[in-house]
Design a protein that fits this description.
heterodimer, A: 116 residues, mainly beta, 7-stranded mixed sheet, 11 strands, 51% strand, B: 107 residues, 6-stranded mixed sheet, 10 strands, globular
């Protein structure tokens, strides 16, 4: 069965960077995209970015264009989401989710807390 | 970016009721719309894709309709487990934006 397992919670200081991983199993990862979506406390869902695991091409929401980078390691079926120049507003649960367009499998979420 | 506006933002209903949530897009998105259910502390769950196709395993009391700029999610015969937050998402253009959410509460 399909599983997406994310790395554990992180606490970072403002200005630092965080790298969250998402390891997929149970399917051919090169046939699907992976989305990244976040949810800040008390807020709704926010789509951040997507990566094509076959080609490695990514697309980012303009809001995050300068601060987020998606990379992949196909040998371990892992995608990494790095967010730089963290600020308090980046405190959120970050999810990876399997695509095409629609996400029917999600990781368990990774809480990133940005606090001085 | 395409903006999605859900209405209402809050909805109070009783078990057995029928409820409808609307999602309006700032520009046409054909049928490239999904509905998700979010429960506290859990990852979102895909309910409907392609505006009206029920995801496998989702109860048939959930249905979706619409195309272009106006879409609806209908839940018939509300069950206790349906009280959650619902989001629409457009996947016509990057960025794949979400609506602001509709919180369905027990009356």
């Amino acid at each position: 069965q399909v599983h997406l397992v994310q790395s554990g919670a992180e606490v970072k200081k403002p200005g630092a960077s965080v790298k969250v991983s998402c390891t997929a199993s149970g399917y051919d990862v090169t046939r699907y995209y992976l989305h990244w979506v976040r949810q800040a406390p008390g807020h709704g869902l926010e789509w951040m970015a997507i990566i094509n695991l076959n080609e490695g091409m990514s697309s980012y929401a303009q809001k995050f264009q300068d601060r987020v980078t998606l990379t992949r390691d196909t040998s371990t079926s892992t995608v990494f989401m790095e967010l730089t120049s963290l600020r308090s507003e980046d405190t959120a649960v970050y999810y990876c989710a399997r695509g095409g367009k629609y996400s029917n499998y999600w990781g368990q979420g990774t809480l990133v807390t940005v606090s001085s | 970016d395409i903006q999605l506006t859900q209405s209402p933002s809050f909805l109070s209903a009783s078990v057995g009721d029928r409820v409808t949530i609307t999602c309006r897009a700032s520009q046409g998105i054909s049928s490239y719309l999904a509905w998700y259910q979010e429960e506290l502390g859990k990852a979102p769950k895909l309910l409907i894709y392609g505006a009206s196709t029920l995801q496998s395993g989702v109860p048939s009391r959930f249905s979706g309709s619409g195309s272009g700029t106006e879409f609806t999610l209908t839940i018939n015969n509300l069950q206790a487990e349906d009280f959650a937050i619902y989001y629409c998402q457009q996947v016509n253009n990057y960025p794949y934006t979400f609506g602001q959410g509709t919180k369905l509460e027990i009356k």
